[in-house]
Amino acid sequence: MANQLKIIHAKLILPSQIMDDATLLISDGLITSISKNDIDAPLAQVLDVNGNYVSPGFIDLHVHGGGGYDFMDRSVEAFLKIAETHVKFGTTAMFPTTLTSTTEKLIETLSCYEKAEKINKKGAQFMGMHLEGPYFAMSQRGAQDPRYIRNPDPLEYNKILEIGGHLIKRWSAAPELEGAIAFAKQLKNYNILPAIAHTDAIYEEVIEAFDNGYTLATHFYSAMSGVVRRNAFRYAGVIESGYLIDDMDVEIIADGIHLPAPLLKLVHKIKGVSKTALITDAMRAAGMPEGEAILGDFEDGIKVIVEDGVAKLPDRTAFAGSVATADRLVRTMINEAGIALKEAIEMITATPARIMGIHHHKGSIEIGKDADLVVFDDDINVKTTIVNGDILYNKLSPAFNPEELINKI
Prior knowledge:
This protein is α/β, with parallel strands linked by helices. It has eleven helices and 25 strands. It has two domains: 4-55 and 367-408, Urease, subunit C, domain 1 (Roll); 63-355, TIM Barrel (Alpha-Beta Barrel), CATH 3.20.20.140. It is 26% helix and 28% strand. The strands form six sheets. Strands 1, 2, 3, 4, 5, 23, 24 and 25 form an eight-stranded mixed beta sheet that branches. A six-stranded parallel beta sheet has the order 11-12-13-14-17-18. The two termini are 21 Å apart.
């Protein structure tokens, strides 16, 4: 007998429309039926969402932590707690992200990921690791620890790839560094997406990088060059390159702070919904009260201050990470960037799914796809999160199970 869940009285956010008062049936973790009418499934568990929206689950391409934990803590507990924290805010799939570190710590983090992935049943699903660094431009390090920033080293990255290449789905680096193009070519041999990050590249370097696989700009605008002047001549930087290269994907920290409303509007106007993914880039303080926190490894990380809805370096000269959750990103794009709900949802569901090549089974509400869903109200307050058909977070009335009633009679 199939394990079934029927969602009723939903505003379903579908690829082509928002369907009012709709019904959706999930069987064994997959979406099996969508209808404006009732669906005959007498033994299905029933969840009445009372006219709230039901959208595809949010997919976070870039997240470092939450709930007081960071992936660089290098513990299975940290991985699980972060996933459990973000599922409460609608994230159903995530790509755990590292920071600049030693080779040994990166390998240890990958080992923890592999162990946690097998037992993660209560949180957002792990879709593969994202290594952010350590191959960055020192001038664009941001809050990345300068002790570990270096140029791509084949002896190092090949060792990491041989041990954990099957776990890595994306690796962010500065493409202008010596050896960065050869590095990208090796990543492609492992089906890993190279991404541009923490970089002082100019347009000509970005074009070469794009042609060699660097097709995604990591946290667009943050820690990357704009127009630069060299020997009196102006050159387009990575930001201008991201706009000029039509097929370049970008991701943005849409918390309204890393990028204020005018820049959110500009990215939306030029790159559009289908080329822009919303990310939290959240550090350990996401979902926690404001105050002091640690960016990265709890034992060896950087002390930061969380205030005004963002993490800052202690001297307050720069941001030191986001504390955003996925629901906040959607809310910000609607309220501050002025875009439609359906577009904001696409930017955190279908677009990231396409960028990471998981769109065949995630990222939209369609028959045959994974039942990753989030229920929220008009203000994007998350009420229920469902991952692979399992209700992992629920603030609505408990789902009704007809089979339980039958057994009582």
